[in-house]
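Handout, section 4.2: multi-component inputs.
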Amino acid sequence: MPVKVFLNEDEMPRQWYNLAADLPTPLNPPLGPDGNPVTPDQLAPVFPMNLIEQEVSTERWIDIPEGILELLVRWRPTPLHRAVYLEKALGTPAKIYYKNESVSPAGSHKPNTAVAQAWYNKEFGIKKLVTETGAGQWGSALSFATSLLGLECKVFMVRISFDQKPGRKLMMQTWGGTCVASPSNETQAGRDILARNPDTPGSLGIAISEAIEEAVSDQSNTTRYSLGSVLNLVMLHQTIIGLESKKQLKKFGEDRVDVVIGCAGGGSNFAGLAFPFVHDKINGAEIDIIPVEPFSCPTMTKAPFVYDHGDTAKMTPLLPMYSLGHDFVPPPIHAGGLRYHGMAPLVSQAILEGLLTPKAIHQLECYKAAVLFAKTEGIIVAPETSHAIAAVIREAEKAGEEGKEKVILFNMSGHGLMDLNGYDRYFHGELHDYELPAEEIQRAEDALKDLPKPNMAKTGKW
Amino acid sequence: MPVKVFLNEDEMPRQWYNLAADLPTPLNPPLGPDGNPVTPDQLAPVFPMNLIEQEVSTERWIDIPEGILELLVRWRPTPLHRAVYLEKALGTPAKIYYKNESVSPAGSHKPNTAVAQAWYNKEFGIKKLVTETGAGQWGSALSFATSLLGLECKVFMVRISFDQKPGRKLMMQTWGGTCVASPSNETQAGRDILARNPDTPGSLGIAISEAIEEAVSDQSNTTRYSLGSVLNLVMLHQTIIGLESKKQLKKFGEDRVDVVIGCAGGGSNFAGLAFPFVHDKINGAEIDIIPVEPFSCPTMTKAPFVYDHGDTAKMTPLLPMYSLGHDFVPPPIHAGGLRYHGMAPLVSQAILEGLLTPKAIHQLECYKAAVLFAKTEGIIVAPETSHAIAAVIREAEKAGEEGKEKVILFNMSGHGLMDLNGYDRYFHGELHDYELPAEEIQRAEDALKDLPKPNMAKTGKW
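Output:
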């Protein structure tokens, strides 16, 4: 029996799947500063027009351009593994499969959209991309992608990660990217925050503000901003993960899947694996689809569904999403990629529709799960990914209690080789669980109460 | 045209190739303290008998046990890539292929022999393995392997790497291995050296002495020593790399290869790729087979072929090999895996026979090559691997001058994500080239002159 299945390059999906085409209730539109839906022209200084068109598309299947396929085959299709050793350690009747996105040169799923965004920008005549990064996964993925295409790249990295994770910064540098700590003195947004709080550790919201400011202030109009999560187009580009997984599950002889799991910060690795299965669910399949977040940043499980900005300085349009508030600063857990105040509008809408069942898990349970995974399957995963594994273990144990041979699929979204510090602190008993106090949630709701309200209509079908 | 080729698990080689069966002149035997060939019984406290038998085997093809195949398929077969983007950047008529050993959970080729050695030890009833590690690739690979098989693992890590590369130590820890800085106070060999030189940065030779001492002093007789290079059996286990590559080259449509390249410290990743092609060369194929070493530790290109110890404290038998002397401490270059005073006897003998054409390259040329590789092929390689890439670039340029469409194959033996510090120093202009003075070579020859001399007979055929 094989423990993993490859696909040949010619078996790689040729189209992305767009959930926006199938959502029972259409997405609320992003709103501009005037409270009206944002027009493509308003977004033009930030994104190239070809990506803006993709962001609002409701076509179900979107062709992957040949030029992007040529970039993706450098590391795709990625393997699908069966976790036979984890199954054995758990003594579960469940069959556990995982998609291994850690084999990309940047070590995670992030290059799937990085190469696509860099390619579309280059097609549009753009010379330079600016972005932000938290733990560094996204910044290194975009530096990798721009390097392959000969674009310039600048990354604003949240200061605390910049200081604690020199490895990620060096990856960006090796691929030719420029990485600066955020808040920086290079933007008005950064200078304002430093003036108020010179010792701030920074946040993703602040870094986004700086990156957008730098992108839109380029006088030559050949610089744009790039975002590694949240946007519809990012979810779209990541669906290649789930589409490959479906073909590979067939090769394993599986004709159904019962549970699909991914960790969710902004939502992209989860959506990438899950959305093709959400499509099946909408069409009648019985599947539990579970995005997993940390208890310390419980966007999906505790926050309100609202209109909110994606960044601290309120430079982005208002997006319809679950949000803890654009000025929320989550407690310092090691899964930096899960410390975002909002959630992708497509994921948020699918939750509202009842298509997804979000779960929150504490970080100690996640590290325990990750160590078991390392000792059984042999792979050291990223702290973000450990949240998916903890949920998988719970589901496998549940399958045992129910005596069911369930098929569980999860996204092994990245390796943890640049994040070993968290494991070290875990082994030394220095990590703790954080639960956000109810007052914090209330504070978030209060802070957002004067903003427009999204339409919360749902079909109530799931 | 595909840029990489996988194999299915059922296409994985079922046998290792043993060059000892085909060498025109047989290997000189290892010698014991009395100057006579070492007997299996003398080695029994150090290695399990099943591995001792494998070490001296002259069978050409050796079956890979089913239990080891089951461990290898966790990440094998590894992909073979065509470096189309590097070719384009070089404007070469050559076709460049590379075997990607970086996709293993430990990030290098080392797990190929780690899982095999751990499996044979477990079969023999051993409960614990002890080893040494330089840069940390081997120590993490053995920790990974013992974790999968439920054995204990202890690693003596050269102090300077222990301090500079906390990531590798944390990988070992995550897999359940124990890692201590060498020299340590835990062995007589370590205490002796610390007494003489409390601030020593350590060396691979010292760490080997400590590991052997700890292994042989276990009163319960269930601990053995494990070595990640140099030994015949290690070369044997690594030949799966070259055997897979042959099948994959055929799938790429290649019916010949002109140049085979690998970096060589102790020799194992080079031998793993190259020996199956040395077999073809012995049988008439025209192939340039090139092991590459740093100019600062020029074992193959400048050192004498002698009998010498594998470690500083002279605990190992005398091995017939090119050696700079067992007390040689190489200058501090970043490719820690290439800082070994000797060279595997099988590789040494093949050089003596004229089957291989070793080359030495300076570290700045290697880093330049690695950065070009990162920006074209997208993968950040280990500092060791950069030596192979520098040699590939030279060969590709030569093919251009000659106007020949040569087929070049090299071993991409590991990623550099745990070794980014070297890249950082390279970018900051802090690295220098070292060339070993002729007096040092003379000193090595003088120091070894009272030891027995190996038989230097050769067929002179190549």
